[in-house]
Specification:
This protein is an alpha+beta fold. It has a single domain, classed as Ribosomal protein L28/L24 (Ribosomal Protein L24e, Chain: T, Roll), CATH 2.30.170.40. Helices cover 27% and strands 36% of the residues. The strands form two sheets. Strands 1-2 form a two-stranded antiparallel sheet. β3 and β4 form a beta hairpin. α1 crosses α2. It is elongated, with a radius of gyration of 16 Å. It starts with 12 loop residues before the first strand and ends with a helix. 10% of the residues are buried.
Length: 77
């Protein structure tokens, strides 16, 4: 599985580790992903999604159906 949030589209980013002497070495910034099983009321079934924790907070705030509509409108899903 790739490390991509299925709702927001967040993915791995690339950057640098910077030491005290300012030497730079490549590193990866991984998104904080969790596998979550949620109930989708519009279809009356359970779905398993790989979500970033920020997507989980959005779902807690507005609900799964509204979050799906919001991110589909933005073109993430």
């Amino acid at each position: 599985m790739s490390r991509v949030c299925q709702l927001t589209g967040k993915r791995v980013m690339v950057g640098n580790n910077v030491s005290h002497s300012k030497r730079r070495t490549k590193r990866r910034f991984l998104p904080n992903l969790k596998t979550k099983r949620l109930f989708l009321e519009s279809e009356n079934r359970w779905v398993t999604l790989r979500l970033s924790t920020s997507a989980m907070r959005t779902i807690d705030k507005v609900g799964l159906d509204n979050a799906l509509k919001k991110f589909a409108k933005k073109g993430h899903i």
